[in-house]
């Protein structure tokens, strides 16, 4: 199992609605609105790294109002 943290930037005023959509994705285990350089941090669990990348590129980045993402794969 691969665990990753996805940092998400959203358009102004979109964070709360996008948080609900991100939390609804199958591989997302948890997500929070945060203060700082990014607006939302999502935790994702998937069988392989490829599945994490697929979730980010197809599911998260495909949502309207997402302006940027950064993926961090947990190493331990």
How is this structure best described in words?
This protein has 76 residues and is α+β, with helices and mostly antiparallel strands. Helix content is 28%, strand content 39%. The chain is built from 2 helices and 4 strands; from the N terminus they run E-H-E-E-H-E. The protein has helices at 15-23, 49-60, and strands at 2-10, 28-33, 40-46, 66-73. It has a 4-stranded antiparallel β-sheet with strand order 2-3-1-4. Strand 2 (28-33) and strand 3 form a beta hairpin. The N and C termini lie close together (11 Å).
What's the short story on this structure?
With 76 residues, the protein is α+β, with helices and mostly antiparallel strands. It has helices at 15-23, 49-60, and strands spanning 2-10, 28-33, 40-46, 66-73.
Q: Can you give the helix content as a percent range?
A: 25-40%
Strand content: 35-45%
Estimate the mean pLDDT confidence.
Answer: 97
Q: Which spans of ≥5 residues are poorly predicted at pLDDT below 50?
A: none
Cα shape: globular
């Amino acid at each position: 199992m691969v665990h990753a943290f996805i940092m998400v930037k959203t358009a102004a005023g979109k964070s709360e609605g996008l948080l609900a959509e991100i939390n609804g994705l199958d591989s997302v285990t948890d997500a929070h609105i945060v203060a700082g350089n990014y607006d939302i941090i999502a935790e994702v669990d998937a069988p392989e790294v490829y599945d994490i990348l697929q979730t980010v590129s197809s599911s998260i980045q495909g949502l309207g109002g997402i302006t940027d993402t950064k993926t961090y794969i947990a190493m331990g």
